[in-house]
Sequence to fold (623 residues):
Amino acid sequence: MNPPDADLLREYGPFPGVDQIHGVSYDGEHVWIATGNQLQALDPEDGRVIRALPVAAEAGTAFDGRFLYQIAGEVIRKIDPLTGSVHATLPVPPGERCSGMAWAEGRLWIGQHRGRCIHEVDPDTGAVLRTLNSDRYVTGVTWVEGELWHGTWEDDASELRQIDPVNGEVRQALRMPAGTMVSGLESDGADRLFCGGGRSGRLRAVRRPRR
Amino acid sequence: MSVAKTADPLIQSAARSLAQGDPLRTLKQLGLRQDPSALALRGIALAHLGDLSRARALLIRAATAFGSAHAVARARCEIAAAEVALALRDLTSVPCALEAAQRTLEQAGDRLNAAHARLVQARHLALLGQIQAATALVESIEPAGLSPALRAVRSLLRSGLAMRRLDAGAARHALAQAHEAAREAGLGALQREIDTADALLQAPAARRLAPAPAGPLRLDQIQDLLSSHACVVDGCRGWFRHPGGQIDLAQRPVLFLLLQVLAQAWPRAVTRHELGRRVFRARDMDESQRVRLRVEIGRLRARLRGIARITATGHGFVLHLERSPCVLVLAPPVDVPHPDVHALLSDGQPWPSSAIAQVLGLSQRSAQRALESLAAVGAARASGRGRARRWHAPPLPGFATCLLLPPAPSAD
Fold:
């Protein structure tokens, strides 16, 4: 059974200096494309790239809305993404290699031991304010629902598939134009699915079918 | 009314990060947003990481922001907040919101979270010692169609309740199911909770004082003793177990101690002097103490009628068993004052004294005195002030002090 063709709404790019798109996400306003050394924010209405963040290793970076924090060996660099300059250098919490970092509630949260141990860190001084160990599962409330879309590439044909988030079954599928590949897929929550075009360096917007 | 379909892909992506056990990623994805869904998910992420007070504040803010217009989302926040309150041992604020929230989710078709709400309710009942009610509630949740994480939580709860019912076999079986479901879920914190429960099942839950050899007893060993023809003086729960049932002496500490001393010496007699010393802490037995002893012996005889007899010897008293071949004496596994209070603290969570009082049916003052005497022997520690004051016990990983806590007097 052949799935229906995807309805291609728009194609963005190529973007200067970008030869591959690795991932796509959407923050409600802009589409973020992962292009190797950078995360670029694109306005999907006019197609302009409005911001670029230097991102060496995605797990070891965090953003507080103004500054980018990046783990580099024994230090955390606090970088001004508008100028690229290092605003401050903080010490990394002592111990094992850090497995991840996030910014929330005015603090940096840094994981060690594959996330078993989380340090709550002062983002101005790097001081470890508290260390949390999660050996209790609190809470089990889940927010997963709605639609989950995956891109697949088999035998030179790409498809967009909608997956049931609870049992993994395929609910519906769309066929992408011949020769295109899908590297990253995100919905804007409304009518569009944004697809990274892999080595084409392009981003495509496809109409999201209603059920 | 259908489940509100969240239109926001970042919220969904963050929700999946949580479901996959990566709460740090959730924080990272939503750290800059202040909409109610972002607050709710950050609250859940912080709960997963262990920052319970911030988690609760965020979940309450999210619930308020959702309001009655988003009843399902609000209900989810209320359930998560109740669960965090439970973990904080803030027991008073738990029950009311849960019932209404559970019904909202049930009616809206949010099956997974509705089932989860029932598990939280059951856990609350279990904490209060209402083992029968908790068991009935857990058994009413259909396991088919639950996510692996929920199946693991359900099995973990079933194993804990089986342990409180002294059914080691059922507890082991439920733990095996919990392990399998947790492996499927791939959630580290869940797996660690199950490992803790495993250790609990293997640890001493009581001490045998008599007859020799004295020593630690695991749950399965206690279960065997209690289903044998022996009589058991159960110093953990204040009961006298006999093949036909049990006599509850928990409210009669003097009678219980008298029985315990006689049972420890059985089949030999105990002198009046020794009884006075151990039961009344009397240094010598003057006439008033002797009268007192006769009165208490009389009371104990009345309670033991048909099961055991107490006869007077030249210098003291001796216990006779009517139908059992022997009597054993059990005590809590760790020798501390107020072992029931200590048992609650030993679950590793910080407890407010009000929660201790509520669970054990003590007055606030009795609970406070018990905590202070535990602190005096280094078995408990307080931190914080006023409403935020919490009590902890230094962890005793080799002991299962809580398994033989008496069930709650009222409901069971």
